[in-house]
Amino acid sequence: MHGVSGATAIRWYDAQSVRSVDDALPLMSAAQRIGAAHRRDLAERIPRAEVGAIVAAVQAALGVCCGAHAAEAIGAGSYRRGQPSSNDVDVLITRRDGGPNDTLLGKVLDALRRAGTTLHDLTCGPKSYAGVLRLPEYQIFRRVDLKVYPRETLPFALLHFTSGAEYAVSLRTHAKSLVPRLRLSERGLFLKDAPSSASSLLVAESEQAIFARLGLKYEEPWERFVEVTPLGTALLP
User: Fold this and answer.
1) Which helix (H) or strand (E) holds 85?
2) Do 163 and 202 fall within a single domain?
3) How does pLDDT run across 111-166, given as a tens digit for each residue?
4) DSSP at 216
5) Contacts of 68 (CB under 8 A, 6+ apart)
6) Domain shared by 215 and 121, yes or no
7) Order of strands across the sheet that contains 142-148
């Protein structure tokens, strides 16, 4: 259940005599209660077509906020890897027009609600949103994460949120093998312990460019499951 780890459940069971979800409700945070209310829906896999419909709804909301071609919504995670179903929906948002990012996500959420989408907020910030969503034409609530990235960071975000878990570990391990203090994240390539405001050591216009600069074979999203494939010398600054 969302927000309740196994350790938390055991602690409640032992110390609070919790024996059911209803027993646990007084101990839960607001986000945990949302997860509890929709736990049966959230346990179901999301068909690929429905994931696509959610991504399309976010794109339509972007069109309302800033124009049809001013921003882009991209479905990431298992959806971008071509899987037939997903546990949740990851949508990356980026502006094409160079406009401000700080207020964009709030406007997208407002536009979704005006279009009839039901949203329950788990966490909500200026550039990251986690919630439970139901499109007006569907009956089931789904977990969704929306994240806003600048255009120059998008290739790193796509790489981070598309790769399978094992593949992501292999990517980070490869980066560290080049330079022990090198850290690859959704924001770029950094030296460990660099200040949070530091610029990425690598500017890349595409995922292909990141693979090339790290000395790796480019692999399509649906190929990113186990390990990266080194090709030759990395081209790092």
Assistant:
1) strand 85-86
2) yes
3) 999 999 999 999 999 999 999 999 999 999 999 999 999 999 999 999 999 998 99
4) B
5) none
6) no
7) 71-75, 89-95, 142-148, 128-134, 118-124
Q: Which two tokens stand for residue 136?
A: 């007006």
Total domains present in the chain: 3
Q: Is residue 228 part of a domain?
A: no
Q: How many beta carbons lie within 10 A of that of residue 232, not counting itself?
A: 9
d(CA 185, CA 224): 16
Q: How sure is the predictor about 94, in pLDDT bands with cuts at 50, 70 and 90?
A: very high
Strand 89-95 and strand 142-148: pairing?
A: parallel
16-61 tens-digit pLDDT? 778 788 878 888 889 989 999 999 999 999 999 999 999 999 999 9
**Alpha carbon of 100 to those of 69, 76, 107, 150, 228: distances in Å?**
15, 22, 12, 9, 35
CA 210 to each of CA 103, 135, 182, 213: distance values in angstroms, whole numbers, following the listed order: 29, 35, 14, 5
Q: Which helix H or strand E contains 9, and what residues bound it?
A: helix 6-16
Residue-number span of the structural domain to which 83 is assigned: 46-148
Indicate if 143 and 50 belong to the same structural domain. yes
- C-alpha–C-alpha distance, residues 224 and 170, integer Å: 10
- How far apart are alpha carbons 217 and 231 in whole angstroms? 6
Q: Using CA atoms in the order 106, 112, 113, 115, what is the torsion angle rounded to 10 degrees?
A: 150
In a domain, 90, yes or no: yes
Residue 29 confidence (pLDDT): 87
Would residue 14 count as lying in a domain?
Answer: yes
121 with 179, same domain: the answer is no
